[in-house]
Amino acid sequence: MNFVTSWSGGKDSCYAMMQAIQQGFSPKVLLNMMNENGKVSRSHGLPLSILNQQAQKMGLPLEGIPATWGDYEAKFIAVLKMLKTKYELEAAVFGDIDLQQHKDWEDKVCASASLKAILPLWQQNRMDLVNEMLENGIVTMIVSCNLIMGEQYLGKILTKKLAQELSEKGIDPCGENGEFHTLVINCPLFSGAIELPEFTKITYENYCFIVWEE
Predict the structure, then answer these.
(1) What are the sequence ranges of the domains in the chain?
(2) Fold annotation for 2-118
(3) Which stretches make up the Diphthamide synthase domain (predicted)?
(4) How many CB atoms lie within 10 A of CB 11?
(5) Using CA atoms, how far apart are residues 20 and 51, in angstroms rounded to an integer?
(6) Phi, psi of 58 (to 5 degrees)
């Protein structure tokens, strides 16, 4: 079964893709929804240059689609239909774990494009998942987080110890509720680690971000 991955650049979409491949599915293309100017990803604030590096390390094409929040759904469905034809797709893979409204939306947009929504991580224990990701070779860095965590966590590599520390602070170790987002630097799907540009840290509207230099 050929599939497109809804690729955030972070650990969950990466591990979902790894799981789908392990189940015998075949990846054909990555899809990321960008902000209006097409330079930074909407979900994780990653520049297109970093996303392209990840795609190149996997030997897969990347579709970075600019969208506003207003036309996000319509553009997502349109690009799924286009990719379905272009790559003879049968499914789309998503990294959501247990947010029902996300799954409902993914089922809806995939149905509109006549694709099957596959969620390999669905309803698995979050701490177990983080540990599995790390044990399976995903090297991932925190690139944004809420104020409960603060700027000191930006740029940190996620480890089992750090995940436990977050959990003890009442923070979801997967960041499933948006507490933090990650960037995959290396994993078994990559031919090698990506190279990161210099960055600075900022706090804006109750959230902390890494800002990458061009």
Answers:
(1) 2-118, 126-212
(2) Rossmann fold (3.40.50)
(3) 3-210
(4) 26
(5) 20
(6) -100, -5
